[in-house]
Amino acid sequence: MSTPTSRADVDVLVVGCGPVGALTANLLGRRGVTTLVVERSPGPHGQPRAFSCDDEALRIYQQAGLLAEVRDGMRTAGLVDYTDGAGRPFAEITLSDVDFGLGHPPLQFFDQPRLEHALRAGLARFPHVELRLGVSLQELHTDADGVTALLSDLDGDTRQVRARYVLGCDGARSTTRELAGIRLRGSTYEEPWLAVSGDLPPDAVRLDRTRFVCDWRRPAFVSPAADGGYRLEFMLRAGETAARLEHPAAVAELVAPYVDPQRFQVRRAAVYTFNHLVAQRWRAGRVFLLGDAAHQMPPFMGQGLCSGLRDAANLVWKLDLALHGRAGEQLLDTYEQERRPHTEEMARITVQMGRIFLARSRAGAKLRDVALRGLQLIPRVRRLVRRFEFKPLPLHRRGWHVGGRPAGTMFPQPRVTAAGGAGPVLLDDVLGDGFAVVGPAVGPAVAADPRWRDLPVRFVRVCPPGHAPGVADGDYLEVADADGRLAAWFVRHRCGLAVLRPDRFVYATGDGPDVSVPAQAATAG
User: Fold this and answer.
1) ∠ at Cα 495 (493, 496), nearest 5°?
2) Which residues pair with 120 in a beta bridge?
3) The pLDDT value given to residue 519
4) Which 8-state DSSP code applies to residue 79?
């Protein structure tokens, strides 16, 4: 066992290499942060547990430089409907008509083993990032300069690693959370569910859409999935056991209305229960919790993994600034300040969706169906449902920004044509990994402002539609706003430029060189 020293062996120790841990390590790698990732499992998890993500998640994968790799094989969901037990719909979400402006479809289905492989393979891009499998966390000791972690491998050999920060991405039963002395608060739902994942040929699919079957006798969720697969979930009835429902004959009977059971190759059939739990705090000194280690929510909106990815996108760039002496503890405190309210709001909406989905009496289900059909005769309510407007948008009401909206909101991501570029690309692809100052009022005077010299920043002048961008000079360039979305955003918010954080939330807006610069922000808004 090595002797702890004041000097860190690595900048960041990431505990857990599921999707959240692997994504976190990729984001750290992009920023040149020396990182050790440890995962207790000796090989890939191999289980298709999480299976959906949204446009925010895809934008985060894009920021990690892995969009093409993770999107390979994904399936875009165009329609989600809610039906009674007889298959009669009482609500529909037309996702094919939904565009939240972030550059990606609002709902995608993926295969978790394939996703994890792509994320882990991405770590090979960075010589300063190391992944060790079959290694578990045993102890944590924090002092003013860093954290000493005791790690053990499958042979029982132990070693100490010194890190400046530790990120617990080790799931619902987080060892990091336990060692940090942080407790969970919330509820564990008693209703067990059977989750079934499998593969089948296209002509063996009997229901080719995503559906919540709101049958009071047995609620279910069914959907075509990534790579030609299919996902189904069924609530267990009173008295039913996992052993009985996981039996192949029982699985075949349950899936038969939706797929041909004779040609459905089951990869996983497992009973689980879900939680609505949030850690009392997400930080203990130099130890942070992300993903399921910090929060767990029911699955009815598919936001569990997405919330963990948002955690990583929020925290990593702040750690990078702190590690390079450009920010202090106050900025790191805004991680929980910004992420907790959005996560809790998403969980509340998810629980409310579950109450609609899980009506467990004939009378209650009938009342729900009639009420929702009637309410959707009101145009505003119909739009709220069909356009998925009840989903909480990315927004920080308090945190590291200056002023009110649009500060604290996520900046849109249309396609643009950059000077010297061959064709339209998504905006983030020209913004770089640091801060960005974007808008029609951006010019040489803004870029030359000495207040920016200590921050990684790119300056992007938005040209009017039809104007050919002509400048690409280091960190100053022009882009053509082909469809006018950026111009419309600046007109709507009555500003000439926006200062964007590395996670693409708006830090501040203004009209010229007098705009607020992040380095001067003394307090969280």
Assistant:
1) 135
2) none
3) 64
4) -
